[in-house]
Amino acid sequence: MISPAGDKRGSNQVAVRQYNERLVLQTVRIKGPSSKAQIARYTGLTAQTVAGIISEFEDEGLLRRGQALKGKVGQPSIPFELNPNGGLAIGVHIGRRSTEVVLTNLTGNILARKQDVYLHPDPVKIARFVRGCRRQFSRRQIMKDSPLIGAGVCEPSGIGGWQAKLGAPQAILDAWQKVDFHAMLDDALDSPAVYCNDASAACAAELLFGDSDRLPNHLYVYIGSFVGGGLVINGNLFLGRTGNAGAIGSLPMRRADPLQLIDCASLIQLEAALVENGQGATALWQDASAWATHRPLVEHWITSAAPSLAMAVTSATALLELDGVVVDGAFPDWVCSALCDAIRAECETLNQEGISPTPLFAGRLGQDARALGSAALPLLSNFSPDHQSLLKA
């Protein structure tokens, strides 16, 4: 869905103008403020083609001029950068414990946010909440001043089917079977949304707004109520045949029983420990300070989860020879850092004969990754270059 600018070359043919336009926009996003000459050099497009595209984007408000830079020779160089408020996107993250709706601009700044925390997700109530958020956002001045590019929705794959594992009442299990949930959400958002599973959306957010675009081939691991993942190949978010590539939560852990990674390295196990100690299952989602309050339980969960995560990332590395692994989750930075340290330590205990050493990094977005990822979906859909468009032209 998105690649480092240096890995793609444009075309000057009229038939692929849209591809070239998207390539220029992505180049500015990745490289930062850039002059027309720099953009032409990065993309391989002619100076004339770049000048025409830049002029069009200026008129549309997608790009703006930065402060002129004086060089030793000739006229000052004028850099162009993304105009943060040149477009807006609504992102909806539907989780097993909460739904979050955000309004973002082109550079991933969250301008408005609403969250609803629950014990079990009810599709009718979620759609009603999303509709209310859409109406509240529409009254903000920024939505009157900037165009809405679109809306994106991310959710766990088969969210209705997993509710039995979380102990949901039969009425909620039945509700998921009876409704056309995506149609309800499209109606609530007042437009068709772009849909994606939550872990892949979080991976897209890290790729678009984080630092992982420096890793052309990497596994992204995101730990929420259940652990999941995304896969980046050649700088693109690789979704696979059914859109579920990188679903490491389904990896088997032991030959003798049906345990999967989700049974060993998900936050649902930490929730269960909290309940056993007299706390509510939603405590972690309602108050960020709860993580520090329950530090002994959190550290025990890290110690328990790290061995299984180490096996998963080592297996992925052996199969794909990755440039790196990025780990993030719905927890504070200190938890992510401690978990990454524990995974690295566990990896060193495994037999890695024949496997190239692979660095492991902490993600940058944490709790915001999935909501930001959902908002990124319409941005990627509208502005990210896709080599398939060259084949169709």
TrEMBL record:
Gene3D superfamilies, sorted: 3.30.420.40, Winged helix-like DNA-binding domain superfamily/Winged helix DNA-binding domain
Superkingdom in the source lineage: Bacteria
InterPro entries assigned: ATPase_NBD, ROK, WH-like_DNA-bd_sf, WH_DNA-bd_sf
SUPFAM superfamilies in the record: Actin-like ATPase domain, Winged helix' DNA-binding domain
Matches recorded under PANTHER family: BIFUNCTIONAL UDP-N-ACETYLGLUCOSAMINE 2-EPIMERASE_N-ACETYLMANNOSAMINE KINASE (PTHR18964:SF149), ROK (REPRESSOR, ORF, KINASE) FAMILY (PTHR18964)
Family under the similarity heading: Belongs to the ROK (NagC/XylR) family.
Protein name: ROK family protein
Taxonomic lineage from the root: Bacteria, Pseudomonadati, Pseudomonadota, Gammaproteobacteria, Oceanospirillales
